[in-house]
Amino acid sequence: MKIKTKNHTVLDKIVSLTQEFVPITSNSENTAELDKILEIALSNLKGYTIERFENKGVKSALIYNAKKRPSRFRVILNGHLDVVPGKDYQYLPKIRGDKLYGVGSMDMKASVACLIMVFKEVVNKINYPIALQLVTDEEIGGFNGTKYQIEKGVKADFVIAGESTGLQIANRAKGILQVKISTKGKTAHGAYPWRGKNAIWEMNKFLNLLEERYPIPDHKAWKTTVNLSNIKTSNQSFNKIPDDCEIWLDIRYLPEETDTIVSSIKDLLPQDFKLDIVEKEPALFIDENNQYSKILLRVDEQVTKKKVRFYGAQGSSDARHFTRVGISGIEFGPIGGNIGSDNEWVSIKSLEQYYQILKNFLLLI
């Protein structure tokens, strides 16, 4: 399947733009490179309205084909240009067979290249408002990009976040709960443990209960998981009983546990323990019978000639910020591998299919 344009195939343009994106070290701490990649992306969107946003030094943009922003778009195509840092060699894009390798190739520079080309192809052929949303802070939470735009009145009926999903449709994604839990004990000399109360041992009792309730799965599973990311005490002596202990937990909870996850953790805590919520981000969920997701699934199967399924994503995306305000959203993107690690890649054939699926979907709804 070749998608023809006047001079080159659209696939050629998608691959070329991806190769232009990959060498840019658009990591969260590299503001200049984040600004650079956003400007390169926007240089491919001349002739459309580009509404720029900036919050706390983070820049993002919303692109649409109208002089004034509509009160509500029917569809927003959401993409992020920031990446998880990689090794130096990964910033040199390489093509081997069907795979395009490079930092962010899968997550999600190739997807953004597709979204740009799809937007340009369909925006003048449809009679409803759509927008392309480009942000630069998704990897660190999306609070000053997507969330900030929503706070400034950006709305839609349906949002497609271009996260790589293997051309399947993620209509669910886990929420994020990050907490600090602390307890106090009683100090004493290490030779006389009965005279003190060891805060670390007390914390260990809680951790045993926590692991019993939320055991670490030995394979990919759709269940709530708990990561113990830090444990510390102010004690720096071998021969002293520590009288304080604090742990950090990163909890990925299922959508149906949104209202119960905090109380579930608190129920395990002894009375003198303290729990502080650092962050609670919503889970993503839309019904499989949502009119837009049903059409997308049907078009997906027509293009790929394969069975497509709805599924739950282990990680989160900026789609959750729309869920927070009652806007339906899904994650949908091309095939790839080794996300955020060595030898990250995206399938070139799937980029062609991804483009065609989105194009057909937007022309149909």
UniProtKB/TrEMBL annotation:
Keyword Membrane included in the entry's annotation: no
A GO BP annotation: L-arginine biosynthetic process
One term of GO molecular function: acetylornithine deacetylase activity
One Pfam family per UniProt: M20_dimer
Transmembrane segments annotated in the record for this chain: none
Keywords: Hydrolase, Metal-binding
InterPro entries: Bact_exopeptidase_dim_dom (IPR036264), Peptidase_M20 (IPR002933), Peptidase_M20_dimer (IPR011650), Peptidase_M20A (IPR050072)
Protein origin, superkingdom: Bacteria
Peptidase M20 dimerisation domain location: 173-271
Keyword Transcription regulation: no
Name of the protein this chain belongs to: Peptidase M20 dimerisation domain-containing protein
